[in-house]
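FAQ

Q: What does a record look like?
A: Structure on top, sequence underneath. For example:
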């Protein structure tokens, strides 16, 4: 971003735009977590990261946020903007409802990235801990004992 441009304003971005940003934010954090745990091979990193950034894992975590009442009314509106955004595509391995819920979470992550880094960090830590130890998940995935991601669904 050049100094002459004003910063992005979430209120001026569509739900899809916020989700686009949130997808990148989550992916970056998951990749960082995996590297911090000592995973270094590219194929392994890619395979393991999918267990955290797939639509089912994201939708499951979003349902946790909703069920526990952890969102403010403004955050709930952002989630709905993302969930209800009109896209022409959806995940190859997820149904449309799951995909839309996941898109709502991504919109929230993009929103927090732009407006509230502390809240973003809080939620990312919940995602990390809610997914269980990625080391345990990774060991199972690498040994072939787990055919599913943190959601318990086939990937």
């Amino acid at each position: 971003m050049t100094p002459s441009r004003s910063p992005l304003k979430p209120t001026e971005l569509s739900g899809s735009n916020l989700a686009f940003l949130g997808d990148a934010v989550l992916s970056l954090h998951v990749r960082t977590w995996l590297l911090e745990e000592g995973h270094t091979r590219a194929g392994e990193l890619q395979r393991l990261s999918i267990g955290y950034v797939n639509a089912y894992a994201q939708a499951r975590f979003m349902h946790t946020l909703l069920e526990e009442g952890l969102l403010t009314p403004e955050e709930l509106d952002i989630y709905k903007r993302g969930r209800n955004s009109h896209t022409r595509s959806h995940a190859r391995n997820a149904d449309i409802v799951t995909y839309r819920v996941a898109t709502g979470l991504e919109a929230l992550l993009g929103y927090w990235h732009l407006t509230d880094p502390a809240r973003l960090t809080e939620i990312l830590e919940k995602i990390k801990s809610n997914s269980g130890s990625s080391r345990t998940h990774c060991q199972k995935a690498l040994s072939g004992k787990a055919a599913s991601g943190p959601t318990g669904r086939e990937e």
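Q: Is there anything notable about this one?
A: The radius of gyration is 16 Å.
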